[in-house]
């Protein structure tokens, strides 16, 4: 039941986020006089819909996205612009788009353009999206992903200010846990047995809450420095100064040598081992801290997007058993739902930590969706934004040098790119979803 609850919460949050993303597009399109004929959450067969004014609102069977239909996204071709079919009552040209059958990509562009214009009536001409000023088109298309980033910000801000940022953790040399025995790194989840040697920290009398001040005379200014001197000590004598209840105590023991991970990979080395776990405290901060962290997230997300095809290829190889799946790699919404379910149903994690993790997961997905949609490639929102900006530069340049107005930028010419990108995204999405079923990323611990 708890697992299902976590999945439902995550799924519902994403559906709401998608709905609000599309509201962003629709609200500004209508504000600028555009005609929005459809607003749907999901894809596939229609489950429910209702007509309100000129807009049909509804839900589709597959809640993996959404869309708004803004009339006139694709302008007519150059030949059609040159030869209007007539004029409307305001004297504006009315265009009718013909289909072409010369060349595969030409056919695709022509068919898409014709489908776009089939339901456009003469009175719609002044309200067509492509006729909007470039800055209005940028605003309409940016409003959707901006909503997702705003949702992420609205979650991150109070979370960072109270609970803290779990992705920015400060580790202090204050003892949070003392190992009872020395267990091999490969078996660190099991309990101690009578055959396991007692941990050096337990033998020395170190207790939870002790602040380690020095180790063999070396100041324990931070956990990384303390960890280095412990590991370098091998099985030598250890003199440890701790502060307990305001009093400094000197404790002695001998560290032991055992295999421990030395980095982010699976590599292990024989190093000195004491048997203490430090205190990890998420960093807290307000408005400026949140803005700085989201700026850093933007950089990390951009870097991750560059590596995304390689990472997805790694997931594909993990599916067929050629390599282990990277636990820090990308996951689909199926993987996100699984992590949410495992978190809520975890018996050890307390409810405050469960709530914080769920909020971080929801905010993280929203942030990624927002940044991803700004990528300047069709069919993403960023592709339309890039086209509008190019139109502004081109027309501004012509005006500056008193050249003829080059007119609206024809986004339809980029549709072949959109098809390639769309198919690529579909394939990567399917690989990630299959990977999340076959070789899922699981909650640590």
Automatic annotation (TrEMBL):
<keyword id="KW-0472">Membrane</keyword>
<feature type="transmembrane region" description="Helical">
    <location>
        <begin position="138"/>
        <end position="161"/>
    </location>
</feature>
<dbReference type="Pfam" id="PF02163">
    <property type="entry name" value="Peptidase_M50"/>
</dbReference>
<keyword id="KW-0812">Transmembrane</keyword>
<dbReference type="InterPro" id="IPR008915">
    <property type="entry name" value="Peptidase_M50"/>
</dbReference>
<dbReference type="InterPro" id="IPR036034">
    <property type="entry name" value="PDZ_sf"/>
</dbReference>
<keyword id="KW-0862">Zinc</keyword>
<feature type="domain" description="PDZ">
    <location>
        <begin position="199"/>
        <end position="244"/>
    </location>
</feature>
<dbReference type="GO" id="GO:0008233">
    <property type="term" value="F:peptidase activity"/>
</dbReference>
<keyword id="KW-0482">Metalloprotease</keyword>
<dbReference type="InterPro" id="IPR041489">
    <property type="entry name" value="PDZ_6"/>
</dbReference>
<comment type="similarity">
    <text>Belongs to the peptidase M50B family.</text>
</comment>
<keyword id="KW-1133">Transmembrane helix</keyword>
<dbReference type="InterPro" id="IPR004387">
    <property type="entry name" value="Pept_M50_Zn"/>
</dbReference>
<keyword id="KW-0378">Hydrolase</keyword>
<feature type="transmembrane region" description="Helical">
    <location>
        <begin position="417"/>
        <end position="439"/>
    </location>
</feature>
<feature type="domain" description="Peptidase M50">
    <location>
        <begin position="10"/>
        <end position="395"/>
    </location>
</feature>
<feature type="transmembrane region" description="Helical">
    <location>
        <begin position="356"/>
        <end position="375"/>
    </location>
</feature>
<keyword id="KW-0645">Protease</keyword>
<protein>
    <submittedName>
        <fullName>Site-2 protease family protein</fullName>
    </submittedName>
</protein>
<dbReference type="GO" id="GO:0006508">
    <property type="term" value="P:proteolysis"/>
</dbReference>
<dbReference type="Pfam" id="PF17820">
    <property type="entry name" value="PDZ_6"/>
</dbReference>
């Amino acid at each position: 039941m708890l697992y299902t609850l976590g999945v439902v919460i995550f799924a519902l949050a994403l559906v709401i986020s998608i709905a609000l993303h599309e509201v962003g597009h629709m609200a500004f399109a209508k504000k600028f006089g555009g005609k929005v004929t459809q607003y749907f959450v999901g894809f596939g067969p229609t489950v429910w819909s209702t007509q309100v004014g000129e807009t049909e609102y509804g839900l589709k069977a597959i809640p993996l996205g959404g869309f708004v239909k803004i009339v006139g996204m694709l302008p007519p071709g150059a030949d059609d612009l040159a030869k209007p079919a007539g004029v409307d009552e305001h004297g504006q040209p009315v265009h009718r788009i013909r289909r072409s059958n010369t060349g595969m990509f030409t056919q695709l562009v022509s068919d898409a353009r014709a489908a776009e214009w089939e339901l456009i009536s003469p009175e719609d001409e002044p309200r067509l999206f492509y006729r909007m000023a470039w800055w209005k088109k940028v605003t309409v298309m940016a409003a959707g992903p901006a909503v997702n980033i705003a949702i992420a910000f609205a979650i991150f801000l109070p979370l960072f200010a109270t609970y803290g940022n779990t992705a920015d953790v400060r580790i202090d040399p204050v003892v949070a846990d003392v190992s009872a025995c020395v267990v091999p790194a490969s078996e660190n989840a099991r309990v101690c047995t009578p055959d396991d040697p007692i941990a050096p920290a337990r033998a020395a009398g170190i207790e939870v809450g002790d602040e380690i001040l020095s180790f063999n005379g070396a100041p324990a200014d931070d956990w990384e420095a303390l960890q280095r001197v412990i590991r370098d000590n091998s099985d030598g004598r250890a003199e440890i100064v701790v502060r307990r209840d305001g009093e400094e105590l000197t404790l002695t023991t001998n560290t032991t040598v055992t295999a421990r991970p030395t980095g982010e990979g699976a590599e292990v080395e024989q190093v000195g081992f004491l048997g203490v776990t430090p205190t990890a405290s998420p960093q807290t901060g307000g408005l400026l801290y949140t803005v700085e962290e989201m700026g850093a997230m933007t950089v990390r997300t951009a870097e991750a997007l560059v590596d995304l095809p390689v990472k997805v290829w790694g997931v594909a190889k993990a599916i067929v058993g050629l390599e282990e799946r990277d636990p820090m790699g990308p996951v689909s919404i199926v993987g996100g739902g699984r992590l949410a379910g495992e978190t809520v149903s975890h018996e050890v994690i307390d409810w405050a930590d469960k709530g914080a993790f769920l909020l971080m997961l929801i905010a993280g997905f929203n942030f990624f969706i927002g940044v991803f949609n700004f990528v300047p490639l069709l069919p993403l929102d960023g592709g339309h934004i890039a086209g509008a900006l190019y139109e502004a530069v081109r027309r501004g340049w012509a005006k500056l040098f008193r050249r003829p107005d080059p007119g609206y930028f024809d986004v339809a010419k980029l549709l072949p790119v959109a098809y390639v990108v769309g198919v690529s995204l579909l394939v990567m999405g399917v690989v990630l979803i299959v990977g999340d079923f076959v070789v899922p990323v699981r909650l640590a611990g």
